[in-house]
Amino acid sequence: MTRFVYATATSLDGFLADADNSLDWLFAVDGGEDSIAGLSAFVEGVTVMVEGSTTYRWVVEHEDLMAAPRRWQEFYGEKVTFVFSSRTDLPLVPGADIRVLSGPVEAHAELLRDAAAGKDVWIVGGGDLAGQFWEAGLLDEIMLSVAAVTLGSGAPLLPRRIESSRLRLFGVKQVGQFAELRYAVRSRG
Q1: Which of 10, 72, 113, 172 could be 157's S-S partner, Cβ–Cβ 3.0 to 4.6 Å?
Q2: CA 5 to CA 131: how far, in whole Å?
Q3: How many Å apart are CA 80 and CA 127, to the nearest integer?
Q4: Which residue segments constitute the domains of the chain, with CATH numbers given?
Q5: pTM higher than 0.70 for the full model?
Q6: Using CA atoms, how far apart are residues 121 and 126, in angstroms rounded to an integer?
Q7: pLDDT tens digits along 41-88
Q8: What is the DSSP letter of 92?
């Protein structure tokens, strides 16, 4: 059965990216590469990735994927990537299966489930997009790698109020300077 899983890294003070929308802080934390590698078992069960345009653009620019598009496959393989955006100027990495969607996430739920073919959908980021999945009743799990760093400001982890009665902690693990936390999410309905 397809699950929608928000899997991401966050600072102790709840930010995904710094005030410049950069993720460079993540790779400066001891164990950052190990924490990312810890996602590998989860990523193997994923056939679809979903992300917002800010996250997508950062990855494309940071990894220089327009000049080296083969790196996309090294990172993500053949996974279908849906980018939610109202922008029309998104550069699409050559050879990657990237599809741009606009509008509310619930309008695309069936498309995402069909593309996932029974496997998980990875909500890569950002936090607002994950919040839209929550509001649509489409968020099944939150998988966090909490880094030993504070950023002070930036892109928030999940800018929605989700009561503790809707979250059940079912996994905790230390990986280097990261605490990996897994929460099952009960829908709003």
Answers
A1: 10
A2: 12
A3: 20
A4: 4-100+128-185 (3.40.430.10)
A5: yes
A6: 14
A7: 788 889 999 999 999 999 999 999 999 999 999 888 889 999 999 988
A8: P
